[in-house]
Amino acid sequence: MRILIVGAGSTGGYFGGRLAAAGRDVTFLVRPARAERLRADGLQIVSPMGDLKIRPNFVTADQIEGPFDAVLLTVKAYALDAALEDMAPAVGPDTVILPVLNGMKHVDIIRARFGDAALGGCVCKVATTLDDRGRIVQLGKMQELAYGEMDGSRSERMERLDAFLQGAGFDARLAADIEREMWEKWLMLASLGGITCLMRGTVGEVEAAPGGRAFVHRFLDEVTGVVRAVGREPDEGALATVRSMLTQKGSPQTSSMYRDLLKDQPIEAEQIIGDLLARARQAGLDTPLLAAADTHLAVYQGKIAG
């Protein structure tokens, strides 16, 4: 099996780097600037699970020569349209596209461009960032990739993909209901992102503030209500895990959106908060905390755009 990793940033670079180091057939699709960095310095991972440095196979959009068996799409949501255009020559009639973007808006966009059959479901759980040297720094030990058919069926291509991803230095799992897990991840991201960005603090700092714990519960309940109304019913165990994580005393955890905000970088506000708010309004739901987070992030985006 041959896999194309679209993006060699903190997420794609991490999973693709682990796969390549394990001897899998991996090619990265990158922009010219990232290609120059990889050519000069290789791909480097700094991790509590073990550091590595490799010389990866990579191409730019004009160098793709034909379809791949699988495409792992790891770009930020605001770069999706350009990424789909760049990777189009790599998508053939039997290619499965595995997006690990945040939210669910990209699902409709990919289906419209490549058709239902091309889309697979995928969820990644990893905390990574790029440092000023272009190295991928893993911030914790969590490193899981789950995948499956969107309709929950067991297919030959997913069995092949599962075999390809096993034993590559991270947790790989063929999921029975990947669509539900995608909605559960959105629930977690919208809650964590909305809380940390709106309150401008870590989970532990928000929890310790007067009224902080009650605010977290209200925000999570609001997001959960939207997901139940417009998406899939979350698993009670998964919901309990998110609630515990968001109220953990002293936790240094933040969202990647909050970390990007602190660096004055573009954020995925529309995909993580804005689209969920739009779906809530379409369903006639009153979500004042989501609306407050959306307005807060819109002010930030207006500042960096100016």
From TrEMBL:
It catalyses: (R)-pantoate + NADP(+) = 2-dehydropantoate + NADPH + H(+). Residues 177-292 form the Ketopantoate reductase C-terminal domain. It holds the Pfam family ApbA_C. Keywords: NADP, Oxidoreductase, Pantothenate biosynthesis. This is 2-dehydropantoate 2-reductase. It is an enzyme of class 1 (oxidoreductase). The lineage of its organism: Bacteria, Pseudomonadati, Pseudomonadota, Alphaproteobacteria, Hyphomicrobiales. Gene3D superfamilies: N-(1-d-carboxylethyl)-l-norvaline Dehydrogenase, domain 2 (1.10.1040.10), NAD(P)-binding Rossmann-like Domain (3.40.50.720). SUPFAM superfamilies: 6-phosphogluconate dehydrogenase C-terminal domain-like (SSF48179), NAD(P)-binding Rossmann-fold domains (SSF51735). Pathway: Cofactor biosynthesis; (R)-pantothenate biosynthesis; (R)-pantoate from 3-methyl-2-oxobutanoate: step 2/2. Catalyzes the NADPH-dependent reduction of ketopantoate into pantoic acid. Belongs to the ketopantoate reductase family. Residues 3-151 form the Ketopantoate reductase N-terminal domain. InterPro entries: 6-PGluconate_DH-like_C_sf, 6PGD_dom2, ApbA, KPA_reductase, KPR-Related, KPR_N, NAD(P)-bd_dom_sf. GO terms for molecular function: 2-dehydropantoate 2-reductase activity. NCBIfam families: apbA_panE, PRK06522.2-5. The keyword Oxidoreductase applies. Its EC number is 1.1.1.169.
